[in-house]
């Protein structure tokens, strides 16, 4: 078990280094590496895998199998995805004395749908569900269930627009290349 953990860590470091090399080696292999660690990364209905997962994205190692990422999803730099909240354990130790934090554990799955975009430096908290075709604005703190086909942002993240309105606005403004 220990040797497997060490080998996976070394493999992850090697794959992350390849992100700087032109070509698609990193983009194809980093999701495979994350699957080896236990993260459920699927393909979308059209058979697309991941768009991109930044090497600086942090996936909570308390239980990788509790993280589910849909196909075609992009996870930007410095995103944090958490499946546990240690603050609850600390609160229990305050109320019931030391040692209680080892007895109780707060863990919940995180589900990110197909064709989502998770903006840079966002934090996805335990128990969060982000449905298909959702854009999460940079720096958002996301918890709870968020409907698909929406744009969410803020702290706490909330819906600010639908994908339909958002894309129509940008098509009208012609503010992209």
Write the layout of secondary structure elements.
Blueprint: H1 2-17, H2 25-37, E1 40-41, E2 52-53, E3 58-59, E4 67-69, E5 74-75, E6 80-81, H3 86-96, H4 100-103, E7 110-112, E8 117-118, E9 123-124, E10 129-130, E11 135-136, E12 141-142, E13 145-146, E14 150-154, E15 157-162, H5 163-173
Parallel strand pairs: 1-4, 2-5, 3-6, 4-7, 5-8, 6-9, 7-10, 8-11, 9-12, 10-13, 11-14
Antiparallel strand pairs: 14-15
Helix pairs in contact: 1-2
Q: N-to-C terminal Cα separation, in Å?
A: 49 Å
How many strands in all? 15
Radius of gyration, rounded? 18 Å
What is the string of SSEs from the N terminus onward? HHEEEEEEHHEEEEEEEEEH
Strand percent estimate: 15-25%
Could you report the average pLDDT, rounded to the nearest whole number? 86
Sheet with the most strands, sense and barrel status: 6 strands, mixed
Low-pLDDT residue spans: none
> What is the molecular shape?
flat
- Output the structural class: alpha/beta
- Please give the count of helices: 5
Order of neighbouring strands in the sheet with most strands: 2-5-8-11-14-15
